[in-house]
Amino acid sequence: MTCKWTVELMPSQAGKTAVVTGANSGLGLESVVALARAGARVVMACRDPHKAAAALAEVRQRVPQGQVEPMSLDLASLGSVRQFADAFRGRHSRLDLLINNAGILGVPLTRTTEGFEGHMGTNHLGHFALTGLLSDTLLATPGARIITVGSMGHWNARGLDLDDLNFERSRYTPFAAYCRSKLANLLFVLELSRRLAARGSGVIAAAAHPGGAATNIQPAGSRIVKAIALRFFINTAAQGALPTLYAATAPDVRSNDYFGPDGFLGMRGYPGVARRHRAARDAAAARRLWELSESLTGIAYLG
To answer: Annotated active-site positions, please?
Structure first.
């Protein structure tokens, strides 16, 4: 791409239905606003109903004509994921765009309802299950896309320990857990793309990262340091959402593409092709992670 892509260049999304997870704030909220403004019917998948209500009010204020609908989804509970998928299929016959955006970052050791480590359970396994439960609807929708939001943090993961995915034996540190979950996101996209292609499906599975987004990176130190970080290294939430929106709507996107900001160190800028660590290109690890994810969640698809 040669232009500075912004939402003003987004193709019309009229007639399309989108699901955005983690839609109540930050990147998710900005994605909802942009898609609704472009004409899509957008389902705001949110865990907290009070935050969802506040976010819905903001979207309606910013896009009065927007078609938006909040629905309850807690990715840390497979029961909630199933309930969401059942409810969505009961209301909608098509799904053009699934944006797997929601995530947690740097929390102390927690366990999901099923006992998964919090980052892996929410950021990867919850989205793996959601995608699987909505896969029939996606496959039946011409031109559908599945976009998973990654992170530059995956470069710090140094591979996945597939024998201890949920930190049951190894020493837990919050940042390491987050980085591993983000590596899992990219491996998921790699194997999802392969399986879709093997099926002969036209569904596109791609990924994007926001660079340094003001929603999840808080610069430390003095106000001067923070000002410098915000000026040169950190995107606003709206700017950070652009790579995701590009992956979701641009006509030249292909399966397993990965986009991020094109500026210094990939921290900020306009959508461009992003680099990924060799560990995120490991096809064998991607297949093993998929099989393990099926076993852990009990949800198998695209076999």
So the answer is: 178
Distance between CA atoms of residues 130 and 82, nearest Å: 8
Q: CA-to-CA distance for 46 and 54, rounded, in angstroms?
A: 11
Homologous superfamily in CATH for domain 13-296: NAD(P)-binding Rossmann-like Domain (3.40.50.720)
Token pair, residue 42, equals 């957008």
pLDDT digits (tens, 9 = 90+) for 196-236: 999 999 999 999 999 976 554 344 444 544 443 444 456 78
Residues in the chain: 303
Q: pTM value? A: 0.93
β-pair type (97-100, 145-149): parallel
Q: What angle do CA 183, 263, 143 make, to 5 degrees?
A: 60
> How many of the other CB atoms lie within 10 Å of CB of 80?
18
The 10s digit of each residue's pLDDT in 70-90 is 999 999 999 999 999 999 999
User: What are the residues facing 259 on neighbouring strands?
Assistant: 208, 273
